[in-house]
Amino acid sequence: MADLLTISLNNVRFRAFHGIHPEERQKGNDFVVNMQIEYLPQKETIISLKETIDYASLFSIINVTMQKPVDLLETLVQTIANKVHKQFPQVKTITVAVEKLNPPIDKFSGSVEVKYTKKY
């Protein structure tokens, strides 16, 4: 088995307007995104940014996607994963999780999260 390199973006916070309820689209909610990618490096020792996947580019994909309101967290995680793989086809595995910190559920205390993992 080849040696895979892992890059993670952890606890990336957003104020966004995703959800099926009208008040979510108006007031927004707080979200936390976590992403982990695995890829096969082209060199034994990486010494240049162009030899790896720039985590700033990964953040940019997340940031742009989070700015466009959608109804479902499932849509968000799948869209982020697909955009990452399209830009970085060397990705072998991706996991994206989006957590909604204050879901509008009566008498509910906590958060909800949708996590998506895809192997290429």
Notable traits:
120 residues; 4 strands; alpha+beta; GTP Cyclohydrolase I, domain 2; four-stranded antiparallel β-sheet
Query: In the CATH hierarchy, what is the class?
Result: Alpha Beta
Estimate nothing, just give the exact number of structural domains. 1
Q: Give the CATH superfamily.
A: GTP cyclohydrolase I, C-terminal domain/NADPH-dependent 7-cyano-7-deazaguanine reductase, N-terminal domain
Average pLDDT reading: 95
For the record, give the distance between the C-alpha atoms at the N and C termini, rounded to a whole number: 15 Å
Walk me through the structure:
This protein is of the alpha+beta class. It is built from three helices and four strands, in the order βαβααββ. The protein has one domain: GTP Cyclohydrolase I, domain 2. It has helices at residues 22-27, 55-66, 73-87, and strands at 5-16, 29-39, 91-100, 112-119. It has a four-stranded antiparallel sheet with strand order 1-2-3-4.
Give the secondary structure arrangement, pairings included:
Blueprint: E1 5-16, H1 22-27, E2 29-39, H2 55-66, H3 73-87, E3 91-100, E4 112-119
Antiparallel strand pairs: 1-2, 2-3, 3-4
Helix pairs in contact: 2-3
Short description:
It is built from three helices and four strands, in the order E-H-E-H-H-E-E. With 120 residues, it is α+β, with helices and mostly antiparallel strands.
